[in-house]
Design goal:
By secondary structure, the protein is α+β, with helices and mostly antiparallel strands. The chain has four helices and 16 strands.
Length: 265
Amino acid sequence: MIKELNHVGIRTADMEKSIDFYVNILDGKIIRDAKSTDGKSRFVYIQIVDGIIELISAAPDSADLGLVHIAYIIDYDTTVDECYEKLSEMGYEFTVKPKIAGSGDGRLAFFRDSSNCIFELIERRHDIRQPTLKNNVIEEFDHISIRISDECVNKCEDFYLNTMGFRVRKILRKNNNIMSYYAHGKDTLETLYTSGVKPEKALQHLAFRVKSAAKMREYLISKGVDCPNNIKESQMGGFYILNVIGPDGVAIEFLDRCSLDEYNA
């Protein structure tokens, strides 16, 4: 059904502040800067190593800021209308039915999965991702994180593996917690599950891999980023995490996985 996991959408009330953070601090590259056909909205795509974020302009008083959706490019031999019919028959709720994209580039639709996460399907016959971009700050766009609850654990696994064509990259278990990593090409989604916990919001955070969490903290402080002294070992053990809140409340993890070699097995 899908060709690739293309990007994660972030709604921002201050476009220039968000661009400054992801481009000038995290060394991302703007690969597309577009406006909606009515001129009211702006969409800025920033590539960080192999991953892409989409910044979506919003009013300063908007209640829905931060991480808002995950977007897939569908296979070139299908259409978004065909995907809509298939997923609708499977019981998935579409919040936006197939239509021409706001930028005028291709067609799209939005639907909600069992974890209440919003996914975008894009029908587009060209790729905006640049395969050879280098980054002086980030080693890898590690994953996008989704929190799931008891009632949708099995449904989510079936959705990623059998409907969307992901593969299991790694599953880590400890006590009542399960961290499952699903990969599609170089892109990875993480589902976080804690028995008995019902999340308020599905999309949780972005995770970037760095050489050293401690050095990353020093670097962010030098750039004026509020960076509390909260480097800690993962609850699963074996690697270290620096947690930072980015623009519009986006939770970001900087991961130092130097001692978790089996993650890439």
